[in-house]
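Sample entry (609 residues):
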Amino acid sequence: MTTEDFKKLAPTLPRRPGIYKYMDGDDVILYVGKAKNLKNRLSSYFGEKKHIPYKARTLVKNASYIEYTIVETEHDALLLESTLIKKFQPRYNVQLKDGKSFSYICVKKERFPRVFFTRRVIRDGSTYFGPYTSKFRAKIVLDIVKKLFKLRTCNFHLSEKNIEAGKFKVCLEYHIKNCKGPCEGLEDEAEYLEKITQVKNILNGNLKQVKDYIRSQMALYAGQLQFELAQDFKDKLEAFEDYQAKSTVVSASIKDVDVFSITSDENNAYVNYLKVVNGALINTDTLEVEKKMDESDEHILSISIPHLREKFNSIAPEVVLPMKTVMVDKTLTVTVPQRGDKRKLLELSEKNVMYYLHQKYQQELTRKKKQTSTERILNTMKQDLQMSEIPFHLECFDNSNIQGTNPTASCVVFKNGKPSKKDYRHFKIKTVEGPDDFASMEEVVYRRYNRLVQEGEPLPQLIIIDGGKGQLSSAVKSLKKIGILDKVTIIGIAKKLEEIYFPGDSIPLYINKKSESLKVIQHARNESHRFALKLHRNLRSKNALGTSLTAVPGIGEKTAEKLLKLYGSIERIKKLDKMILEETIGKKNAKSLLKYFKGQAKVENAEEE
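Predicted structure, serialized as tokens:
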């Protein structure tokens, strides 16, 4: 996935919590990540390369596209990320192998219910609160509950018959005033159940009395100058205010359900699907349905649900829908929730389908804007240059030589008004002796288009020559020789006054300096100059180094090239050990080279004296 691909996607990304999935060309998940702000997080993968880790750059390079799902909170994003990683084991994620599930607080279904921490959800009628992403947070909540309500921790079967028979005795917890002794009938069941009701209220998010209690304890210990204990309660208050008792991503009260929502316009409908297994959201998808007639949302849902369930191999016995719909499978339970966890899941599905629609609209808008801009510029260029075709494909040539050495040329290619760098070509001048720009241009243009014609490759609509009438005439000679002059438009651009020359016309064309078409021509000219100069400098540098080495008796061009390729510079070669040189170029050549370097050093020392 390229930066350009992301720029098209960026305007559609929400600034909301969620998870994102990098997908490859075969729709396989490469990486799952979570984000507090999806737009900011995904943008961080496409900044300056030096700030992006190698692993992230490799991930982006191998990905074809990105999918994302929004959730209510960062906490929910963490849970969904964990669920997806465990299920799909993506290549670029840290593999989760500890097998741990989420943490819950259980209010046990029994006489004098216990409240305890657990990782197992047993569907025996007990009430589970969570999940908690941190065991530490869950333990803090439990600790506060125990301090507030003095609940039992033993696992005795406190039936009325057993208590009356005196089968149990109070334990240490009673003596240190952490329990009121229901095992010996010292606490009334109704009073105990009232405390359990309050515990459930707190775990459901009614935290005011808990906060008041912590603040009072914090103030008490601070007043007694017991600052460590006061700090302990302050930490608990901060953690308690930060924790979230319930989650829409994983719910202990929901087992296996499929959640569907729909939105539609005149031509299409969009059905979002959430797959929930064992209370965990493990997959999402959005299906586009093209309307043939004026089908209702209910009808489209009824035919989309079997398709999506089959696609994701769902065997959930219940579907959650925004409206009553006739199901093909009569065994399915249809729920249209008004409140509770299922309603939250439905709202989440509705948000995702709306974001999908918004993203689709923005992408279409961006595509149209880009297309309109490109077409406008190229049409302007066609009119300015009086062409018969729109120049979707243009090529520009430039020569480069300094003081007649290492003559080179370049050909840069623009497609749809943008550089196509993979199609750029360098040329070393082969048939021209000395600094002859006209002859060099004739050679390069001939080599380029003679090869394209022989290989059956498409020709550009426009050829630009960086230079005045002389260079243009040389290029025209080559096109006539190949027989394609009437198939392309060719122009020359002189650098000083930006004059545009046409073959056979001595009077130049002046395009408005603010014209968008002139800016594209100038861009192509500057690119060709830069590209030609790059090769010229490399050759000049290489030849300068090579000449110094080939002055040594016995060292030819291939040996010099081998040494420079291995060690980079003559200064490094001078510092090499004799044995290393012998292994690289042989004893005889190594001896000659060392002797030459020694003689050079004597001359340099004598000059300094």
